[in-house]
Specification:
about 325 residues; 2 domains; 6-stranded parallel β-sheet; alpha/beta; 9 helices; TIM Barrel
């Protein structure tokens, strides 16, 4: 059967043809300009129909097919340069076409232990895949009032490695060990850092991996909370609880380590559980991006007057529950 839209297109084409023949037969005067006006009107009506068919975007898509929900944004982040980020996580993310940020450090025995940690050649490949390479300090140094004077050198250490391997300069940072201090903000800004992710603490205890979603304009871009910090005993329900916080303009930032993490068992994620998490994101049509791409939804230069106000507010709310 001919669709109603196709019949409309056919009628418009037929009318255009008739007008063109009338114009060519010189039976109609050119003085009034009426035939030319009618032809232009037909073209204006016809072109949108042809344009939609040419793109095929509406013609072939089932009406009940789910689409990616731009209002439900999840940011996947991976810390500590675990070897499984390349061997396990990378192919799974490519399979599902998800973005992600990998926070790189040369801490522990990174330079000599390639059983547990990435090589810079692998990191370069991940950058070329389109994944974000973030800065996690050279030595995985916790940033406190006592150590902040060394932060510049720690950032430079990773930046120089990135330059050496042709990797984009990092614009995202993850606080090592979830230690935080506002004294680091000017240094991060000087290095071109747009976003910095922390854990679920201090609102929640570190041990349970719980957290809050990122609320743009309320959370400081250098104190972005993790909505969830995956642990070995996490079940799908724990993951769902974290990602379902991405609503009403909030972004759910997830923190992972190795999948598995062969060097740090207390933050390891089982492979089968991790793939179940990704399947859930795909099934529910979440928008899954790297942290740097949050600038599509957030103004990274909009800083709240008191960066700790929202943290204290949440702590009080939890204490009253």
């Amino acid at each position: 059967m001919i669709s109603e839209r196709q019949a409309t297109v056919d009628n418009l084409v037929r009318k255009l043809w008739e007008l063109m023949n009338e114009f060519d037969s010189e039976k109609t005067s050119l003085v009034s300009g009426q035939p030319l006006f009618l032809i232009l009107c037909v073209l204006v009506l016809l072109l949108p129909c042809l344009h939609r068919d040419a793109k095929g975007q509406q013609k072939d898509r089932p009406e009940n097919e789910p689409k990616v929900n731009e209002n439900r944004v999840v940011i996947l982040t991976f810390d500590d340069a675990s070897a499984s980020h390349y061997s396990i996580v990378r192919p799974l993310l490519l399979k599902y076409q998800f973005g992600a940020t990998f926070f790189i450090t040369e801490g522990w025995d990174f330079s000599s232990n390639k059983k547990d940690y990435l090589t810079w050649e692998q990191i370069r490949t991940m950058d070329r895949d389109g994944f974000e390479i973030g800065n996690h300090t050279r030595d995985h140094m916790g940033i406190t009032e006592k150590t902040v004077s060394r932060l510049n050198d720690q950032l430079v250490g990773i930046e120089q490695r990135c330059e050496q391997y042709g990797i984009q300069k990092p614009v995202s940072f993850a606080w090592p060990g979830n230690a935080i201090t506002p004294s680091a903000f000017p240094i991060l800004k000087e290095h071109g850092i747009l976003f910095a992710r922390r854990g679920g603490a201090p609102e929640y205890p570190y041990e349970f991996g719980q957290g809050f979603p990122y609320e743009p304009g309320v959370d400081h871009p250098y104190l972005i909370p993790s909505a969830g910090d995956a642990r070995p005993n996490w079940q799908l329900e724990d993951f769902i609880r974290a990602v379902e916080k991405s609503e009403e303009g909030r972004l759910a930032v997830l923190q992972f380590h190795g999948v598995p993490d062969t060097a740090h068992s207390w933050v390891s994620s089982p492979v089968d559980q991790f793939e179940a998490y990704l399947r859930y994101l795909a099934l529910k049509k979440f928008k899954v991006i790297a942290l740097r791409d949050a600038d599509r939804y957030v103004n990274p230069h909009q800083w709240p007057e008191d960066p700790f106000a929202i943290i204290e507010k949440r702590k009080k709310e939890l204490a009253n529950q």
